[in-house]
């Protein structure tokens, strides 16, 4: 948090005043500058006026579907967008991600999780942290020398596993959908790879997780995709 | 004698196969031919046996004809007999004159005997025919009644009615019933719905309201193609039967009588089914009332407890004395966190249940790695598992299954959640994943709690069922939801007490097989 002088600006678009209030308290306590809007229309205006560094967007807005707003926004803006959704709406999550959302947080969420997602999204948007060396928990990876170590011991990965891992590392902390991963690793997003992806993921876990049955690094986001825990997360 | 009685039986069977005693043209022709043939056979013999004997033979023929043909034809035969005998046999031959007084008397006696005898025989036959008809009608009614009694729903009653109407009356059937609540005829009818029409509905409504037969060849709505009969019960009218006679055939009097009896039977069968339906509805209603009550009880308890915790925690936080101590503040926050989780769990379960109940459960099928699933659930439950050891024992090379990962996660979550709640702190919960001898994929969750009384095991997956004497908290929904989710995945779920102690719950799924072998 060296950047405290220039506070990051966050825009909250949510129609629940209580949620906005609570978010404001915890975000301001963590040195963010907070704007809030309750409708999609006002949200769009606020984005053009305040240039936020990140937008927290509730999918269920009274005046316009959050997804529509997302699409509109993506036509001219690359501001990172974090979508707030309800627990069991996986298709909505995928749709939001496919339409340009950077990540999502599921209600009810805890503040620690939300702050971690915000940090990750800002980091990715500002291309900070582009170091070739990555480490999180027991995992250590040097992309220059293509070395992967777990608890200090070097492990051998197949090419696919290595590509998978580097893709996850480059997007550390961010959720990646199944189809996105398939597209990036195999070049096509079709479902033939759905099963293969899970098999490779399981094998990768066996190599880099301390306890592959209860993964700590490669987290499954059920129905959506995978997320690699980044070092910044608790 | 035997031959004669056999002959008589044969005649009887021919006679009784008649539908009525009305004579047809065929009867007249047959009578004429019989007399003429017999007369020409007798003609060469008349000088041997004498014309008197020929008269008796011809009389016999008339008597036999009386058994076989209609009444008019018999009278006709008697007349022909009179003429033929007179003309060809009584001297002087080939004239209608009769010389001897003796012959005149014989001739007229012959005619009278023929007429009286044939009339008597005809009468007997008529009453026999009537008897047979009513017997047939009773048999028909009986079999119809039997079928109606055997039918177990309104639809079946309609089906039986349709079949019988087609068989007995050559008619297609449509049945309008009164609406369940209020008065009036329901617009959607049972039976052959191709017969539905607006004008038909109006005619049926008229029949329903005025308790009269309407439609085809009646005084109301005669232009209608169908005829509508009201189904009248002593207390109310149940509905209307519409009949469309194929080929425009109209039933005769007998059929009308039969039809009336049919309609009476249909009415009482429908009345019975409607009452049964009503009773069933009431039962379902009271059952769901009970379920609702149980839900309300458990939900209000499950909501009140965390609410009380939250309220108490907040007042503690507001109090400087307690909130200043960071140790206590952390404890209070943990309690708040736990209460929030508990409420969230409750809401999730109620939502899941209502989705499952409403039948709107949409499966989002994908390949599911069971080991990943278990890992996810364990990860989700980190906080709940604080006071327990968890052991995951996956077999190597497990196949995947096709399923909805989020539903499966909820299913497994509920099972593990129960295992944690109902087993002592610091005990171990073991989750095993393996292929069973039937080549199915099984996830076993074993706890080290008290287990469950044997007589409760079969009810463990019932909605709102809670094992008697189990500790407070819990809605009795969790395992019911799990079972419903496992069911939609064509799997099964089994509970058993472990040999040592504790309960084992196994969820068993069919693995996804490709190319004849389990794909890993």
Topology summary:
The complex is a heterodimer of chains A (234) and B (520).
Chain A: E1 8-13, H1 17-29, E2 32-37, H2 40-50, E3 54-58, H3 66-74, E4 81-86, H4 90-98, E5 103-107, H5 111-126, E6 133-136, E7 139-142, E8 147-150, E9 153-154, H6 159-170, E10 175-177, H7 178-186, H8 192-208, E11 218-221, E12 225-228
Parallel strand pairs in A: 1-2, 1-3, 3-4, 4-5
Antiparallel strand pairs in A: 6-7, 7-8, 8-9, 10-12, 11-12
Helix pairs in contact in A: 6-8
Chain B: H1 2-16, H2 25-42, H3 46-49, H4 51-68, H5 71-89, H6 101-150, H7 154-169, E1 171-177, E2 190-191, H8 198-210, E3 214-215, E4 227-232, E5 237-245, H9 253-318, H10 320-323, H11 326-358, E6 366-368, H12 370-380, E7 389-394, E8 401-403, H13 405-421, E9 428-435, E10 441-446, H14 454-457, H15 478-488, E11 492-497, E12 503-509, E13 513-514, E14 517-518
Parallel strand pairs in B: 7-9
Antiparallel strand pairs in B: 1-2, 1-5, 3-4, 4-5, 6-8, 9-10, 10-12, 11-12, 13-14
Helix pairs in contact in B: 2-4, 2-5, 4-5, 4-6, 5-6, 6-9, 7-9, 9-11, 11-15, 12-13, 13-15
